[in-house]
């Protein structure tokens, strides 16, 4: 299997499959990013528009659970936007997690981007909910598998409130995660790399190693604040933020 074939295979998968690494045991992270980029090229060729990036595995708890020591980066396109109030379509095994989402006001290019310089490039901050949906059976995969699969990206929804980052203490902005009327988890922005601006800086600096930058108007999903919860048929999952309103998903 080569990069182009692996990308096409992942894009065509509509049900669970074995991780790529089972048939490609020497798959490494650099090759996985090449697969991810090729999948983006194929998405754009079929009409999708690149609108930003997402970070995955930004919390220490998630990194420890997955046995890795660094986050990953993945692409967002307009086909991944789920408008507020629209039911979640049928997916493989979707899970939802609350996130803080940045909208960039200007270009952010590494290397050497700090949290402070990253935050200065942000126009608005939103609360959001990402729906992740790995193609791999039982969410069983290596880090290169997850990178190649575009960080298990599926869909995301933004909340109703967008504020200037100067109006918030993002490390203390809290989210309550509710499933079918019961609060099941809570976290603050500090769960994301200590501060979500650190995740934004990481995104800019990581892209710089590939000769890329974060562009004006792009969205950046900074990573799950809590662990992801399953989205089962008939269920309702909501995230309630301190200052950024609420986001509700129904399956």
- Give the fraction of residues assigned to helices: 25-40%
- Main sheet attributes: strand count, strand direction, barrel closure: 7 strands, mixed
Q: Between the first and last Cα atoms, what is the distance in angstroms?
A: 35 Å
Output the number of helix runs.
Answer: 7
Uncertain runs: none
Task: Determine the structural class based on helices, strands and strand pairing.
Answer: alpha+beta
Compute the gyration radius: what is it?
17 Å
What is the arithmetic mean of pLDDT?
A: 93
Global geometry: globular
Oligomer: single chain
Number of strand elements: 11
Q: Please report which band the strand proportion falls in: under 5%, 5-15%, 15-25%, 25-35%, 35-45% or over 45%.
A: 25-35%
Task: Sketch the topology as an H/E string, one letter per element.
Answer: HHHEHEEHEHEEEHEEEE
């Amino acid at each position: 299997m080569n990069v182009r074939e692996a990308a096409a295979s992942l894009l065509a998968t509509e049900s669970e499959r074995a991780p790529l690494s089972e048939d490609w045991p020497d798959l490494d992270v650099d090759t996985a990013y090449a697969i991810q980029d090729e999948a983006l090229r194929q998405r754009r060729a079929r009409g999708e528009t690149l609108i930003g990036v997402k970070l995955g595995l930004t919390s220490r708890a998630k990194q420890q659970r997955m046995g890795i020591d660094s986050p990953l980066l993945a692409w967002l396109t307009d086909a991944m936007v789920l408008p507020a109030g629209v039911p979640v379509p049928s997916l493989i095994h979707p899970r939802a997690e609350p996130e803080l989402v940045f909208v960039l006001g200007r270009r952010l290019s590494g290397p050497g981007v700090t949290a402070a310089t990253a935050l200065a490039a942000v126009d608005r901050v939103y609360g959001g909910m990402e729906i992740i949906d790995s193609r791999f059976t039982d969410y069983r995969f290596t880090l290169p598998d997850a990178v190649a699969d575009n960080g298990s990206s599926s869909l995301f929804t933004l909340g109703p409130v967008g504020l200037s980052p100067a109006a918030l203490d993002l490390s203390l902005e809290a989210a309550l995660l509710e499933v079918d009327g019961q609060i099941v988890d809570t976290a603050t922005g500090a769960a994301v790399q200590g501060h979500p601006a650190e995740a934004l800086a990481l995104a800019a600096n990581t892209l710089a190693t590939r000769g890329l930058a974060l562009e004006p108007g792009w969205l950046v999903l900074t990573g799950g604040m809590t662990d992801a919860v399953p989205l089962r048929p008939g269920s309702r999952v909501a995230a309630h933020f301190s200052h950024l309103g609420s986001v509700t998903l129904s399956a």
